[in-house]
Write a structure and sequence with these properties.
It is built from seven helices and 14 strands. By secondary structure, the chain is α+β, with helices and mostly antiparallel strands. The chain is globular, with a radius of gyration of 17 Å.
């Protein structure tokens, strides 16, 4: 069972760059996308109901052209999908899907960026509050041994190894100490960074600035993750980053699980 996460930086734009060709070729069972930037009715029919996929579910922000998440399932329809945290100022941004597939719960999430309109880190408190609210929502399931996977754009590079230029970005949202400490809190509680479970080396990133030549030189950040609960980890067989996939300033990240995880 392959689960894939991708911040598409606008699903309509990604569609024009071959998103459906990628979706058809990708041997995935569940695909979560972030930064959809459109209401469901604004998406082309072939994106809302892609051929060969059983279901597609979208959550949009109240603000036009902003945020939004989507979840595609190839073989089965989720038993249930919840898309709210229960905090109004968070829920209006359309950042969350919690989908249940049998005994497996898949969380598709677009975590906030801490940058304000003036790139002044003014949204860091909101970002941290969002992290904590989702942590609280999932805490009981984690403690009870449920099979949980949280994927998406976390907008945080965990350690120096997770970005090309850590010294230059210590005051930049995405690598601030308080953001990294919040990410560490999740790992201390038992969540597993699936990619780092298999790959300890440097130079693996999932986002690059769109400035000319940056991606080619691999001056990037690893801010897209798939986290697994202790209850799900025995089923995780591999995890990967796919930097060769173009169409967004992010690339997809994935995990492969034993299909028994749903039963």
């Amino acid at each position: 069972m392959r689960i894939v996460s991708w911040n598409v930086n606008g699903l309509r734009a990604a569609h024009k760059k071959g998103f459906l060709d990628w979706l058809a070729a990708e041997k995935a069972d569940v695909v979560g996308v972030q930064e959809v930037r459109a209401r469901e009715e604004q998406l082309p029919d072939e994106v809302r109901k892609p051929e060969g996929w059983r279901s597609a579910h979208f959550v949009s922000a109240h603000r036009p052209g902003y945020s939004g998440v989507g979840l595609f399932s190839r073989k089965t329809t989720p038993d249930d999908v919840v898309s709210i945290l229960g905090v109004a100022e968070m829920d209006v941004e359309g950042r969350l899907q919690v989908a249940r597939f049998g005994k497996l719960t898949v969380v598709n999430c677009y975590f906030p960026n801490g940058n304000g309109k003036e790139r002044d880190n003014s949204r860091v408190p909101f970002k941290l509050a969002f992290y904590r609210r989702l942590y609280e929502l999932l805490e009981k399931g984690l403690r009870d041994g449920e099979r949980l996977v949280v994927m998406g754009d976390f907008n945080t590079a965990h350690q120096e190894i997770d970005l090309a230029r850590p010294r230059d970005n210590r005051e930049t949202s995405g690598f601030l100490l308080e953001e990294r400490q919040e990410f560490c809190r999740w790992l201390r509680a038992g969540w597993v960074d699936t990619f780092r479970h298999f790959e300890k080396g440097a130079g693996h990133y999932s986002w690059w600035s769109q400035r000319f030549g940056v991606r080619e030189r691999n001056v990037g950040w690893r801010i897209d993750y798939v986290l697994a609960s202790p209850g799900a980890m025995p089923y995780v067989k591999r995890a990967a980053i796919h930097p060769h996939i173009l169409g967004s300033d992010h690339c997809p990240v994935s995990v492969d699980l034993d299909p028994k995880v749903r039963r």
